[in-house]
Amino acid sequence: MSPDPSPAPASTPPVPIEPPRLDRVAASLPGVVFRLVRTAAGAVEVRYAGPSARELFGVAPEKLIGDLCHLIESVHPEDQADLRDSLQASARDLAPWEWLGRVFAADGSMKYLRGAAHPVREPDGSTVWDGTLLDQTDASWDHALEAAMRRRLQLIVEHLPAAAVALYDRDLRLCLCEGQLFADLDLTGMLGRPLDAFAAPETLELILPGIQAALAGQTAAPAVLEADRQGRPLAVNFAPYRRSDGRIDGALVHWQDITQLRRAERARHEAEELLRRGFDDAPIGMALVSTDGQLLRVNRALCDTVGYDADELLSLTLRELTHPDDIAEDVEFVRRMLAGEIRSYQMEKRYRRRDGHQVWARLSVSLARDEDDAPLYFVSQVEDISERKRAEQELAQARAEIDRFFGLSLDLMAIVDRDGFFVRINPAFETILGYTSAELTSRPHLEFVHPDDIAATGEAFRAQVGGSAVLGFENRYRCADGSYRWLLWSATALDDGFVYATARDVTERREMEERLRESREQALSASRLKSEFVANMSHEIRTPLNGVVSMSELLLGTDLDPEQLEYAQVTAISAQALMRVIDDILDFSKIEAGKLEIVAEDFEVAAVLAEVCEIVGPKARDKALSLTWGASPAVPAVLNGDGGRVRQVLLNLVGNAVKFTSAGSVTLGVELVCSGVDEPRVRFEVTDTGIGIE
Fold it and tell me: Which one, of 126, 129, 118, 156, lies nearest residue 49 by Cα?
């Protein structure tokens, strides 16, 4: 046995994951394998980043090691909070972590990454995530997964660990000790001494049975010293030492430092765990499939996609899950891959869910091979694209409906780019303007606009491009035959940079409006001529009538008997009434010209009533009608207003009453309606026994 090592030097920090070995495992996995640790104090650190980080982030993996803030700096600002919150929630609930976000690589390009990991709470209160970051910008990582599954769990020891060999005789005395393991010990004083003179009790207890078995020629089980004085784990093997004659003369003890082996085992275990978690927690469906189509292993995402649990899926084949119409294409790809014609393939296919519905998926398949390039199994990725397919179908339907609407619309419809060229027009353009579609789309639209409308049309188009909607804009477009058509436009620009416009041919409306305008001008001109004629005629009649009025006034100034006096008075009153009729005719002309004026002046109420009855009196006497007038005592004797207009209205009313009354009476009266000091209001009433007004 070798001597018990001397006291160990100052303690060394705990051995971390051995990067070279783990890198070989991580390099065979899709995406970037990582380890995050959230300490009990709350700090989150990146403890490991696989070599794929160089390709994904454009930096060396070691640049990502350390505080998570360094990694978060490369995350899109809008996604940083979501990354922190998702990690906090995962640590709090020990729930699987999933995250989808944008990351900027060192060259400035942006990528979409999907992360997945499963948290584990360590005894010291820290939380550890082992997971993967997948580049969703290009979801194909078949080759990496093929290599990972081919070399799965294969860790290669590159260097032999330090070792030492000791020879003990039958009296358990140390005879010889050679090797680098105990090179730091002084063995001179130990040679020739019995084992129990220098071995620690626990070491003696561990190796003595093995030495005794070797001295007896028996096979001894290996022993493991978990930690020597330097803290190294040591494996101990025993064998008999035989002379040339075969006689056992001692026992050989082989000491081997298994620190590297322990590290390799720990790294292998961690790599297996990373692989398992990366496979099980992958955000898309994954499966290992035998070359005859039998499912060997599936992850949770695939189970969710097809609606089966893992045990049910493993009893099925992919053919049984595949829609019948997609089997032939899939089988042909498999044949070509097994024949070595292709290394991987992708296809969109339909799977049949357990509930009977179908789900669209993008299948990516690669083939894992052994060292001799013989096929082992298929690595399949199944990404659910049902929502995308549904959106594509809805978009296709919407486009078809738009195309039908575009083609059947009687109005002009167009899509115009920012440069003013028609990108698309409907058939109504060709029908109304007479150009072919090629002619209309080959030149800026302003070239078809009437010269007088170009400025306004250009301004309206710039407003549309600037985001303002244009409604009810009219301009003239030149037709193929050289004529112009009036178009009424409604247009708006969307975020895609195009202007969407509709137009209606309003040429006939504009022509009708022009004809109406001309007709109105003619009517107004005729009305003016009529008014001028009436005014002239009124002036012509007024001249002789003034003579009648003057002579009547002179006649009333002479000595007349009562009957003559009455006749003269009636003549004067009638002449004045005729003069007012002429004034009314002139007023009519003024009304048509919009120049009629209402005069406000004081007038006697009784005088107006009496004058009206005197004028109409002869007609009433001819029909033996009683014509009387009266005013309520409450009515003021003098009112302010246009007495002439009042007289004119009352003459019409009383005259009509006499005209349509065959027997009886006609009464003209006035009542006080409002007794306001400044503006008293009265109501004139005409009462008759005739047929009345319906």
Answer: 129
Query: Rounded CA gap, 628 and 666, in Å?
Result: 7
**C-alpha span between 176 and 191 (Å, rounded):** 7
Dihedral (CA of 212, 216, 218, 219) sign = positive
Q: Do the bridges between strand 626-631 and strand 665-674 make them parallel or antiparallel, or are there none, so unpaired?
A: parallel
* 3-state secondary structure (DSSP) of residue 174: strand
Is the CB of residue 427 less than 8 Å from the CB of residue 414? no
632 CB-side CA count, 13 A: 13
Residue among 373, 399, 385, 401 nearest 346 (CA): 385
DSSP, residue by residue, 307-375? T--HHHHHTSBHHHHB-HHHHHHHHHHHHHHHTTS-SEEEEEEEEE-TTS-EEEEEEEEEEEE-TT--E
Q: At what angle do helices 19-26 and 259-280 cross, to 10 degrees?
A: 30
- 141/365 Cα distance (integer angstroms): 10
Q: Please state, in angstroms and rounded to a whole number, the distance separating the CA atoms of residues 651 and 645.
A: 10
Query: Which tokens go with 23?
Result: 């890198």
Helix (H) or strand (E) holding 63: none
DSSP 276-305: HHHHHT-SSEEEEE-TTSBEEEE-HHHHHH
CA 304 to chain centre: 27
End-to-end CA distance of the chain: 142
As given in the structure block, the two tokens for residue 441 are 């789309």
The DSSP result for 499-529, as a single string, is EEEEEEE-HHHHHHHHHHHHHHHHHHHHHHH
Burial of 544 by CB count in 10 Å (0-12 exposed, 13-18 middle, 19+ buried)? Answer: exposed
Q: How many residues does the chain have?
A: 694
Taking each continuous run of H as one helix and of E as one strand, the counts in the chain are 19, 26
How far is 562 from 62, CA to CA, in rounded Å?
Answer: 138
Distances (CA, A) of 128 to 45, 64, 292, 444: 10, 17, 39, 64
Q: DSSP characters for 231-264? A: S--EEEEEEEEE-TTS-EEEEEEEEEE-HHHHHH
Sign of the Cα pseudo-torsion (206, 210, 212, 213, in order): positive
Rounded to two decimals, the pTM is 0.36
Q: Strands across the sheet with 223-225, in order?
A: 174-179, 163-169, 248-257, 234-242, 223-225
Residue with tokens 């007709």: 519
Residue appearing with tokens 């009687």: 410
Tokens of 595: 């120049």
For the chain, 694 residues long, the average pLDDT of each consecutive 10-residue run is: 37 43 62 86 86 83 83 86 89 89 84 87 89 71 34 32 78 80 72 81 89 89 85 89 78 86 84 79 88 89 90 87 91 92 92 90 91 90 89 83 75 86 87 89 90 90 82 90 90 82 88 87 77 69 74 82 83 78 70 68 89 86 90 89 85 88 92 79 90 68
User: What radius of gyration do the chain's Cα atoms show?
Assistant: 57
Instruction: Show the DSSP H helices in 59-141 as ranges.
Output: 68-72, 77-93
At residue 274's C-alpha, the angle toward residues 268 and 280, to 5°, is 135
Instruction: Give residue 495's Cα distance to chain centre.
Output: 12
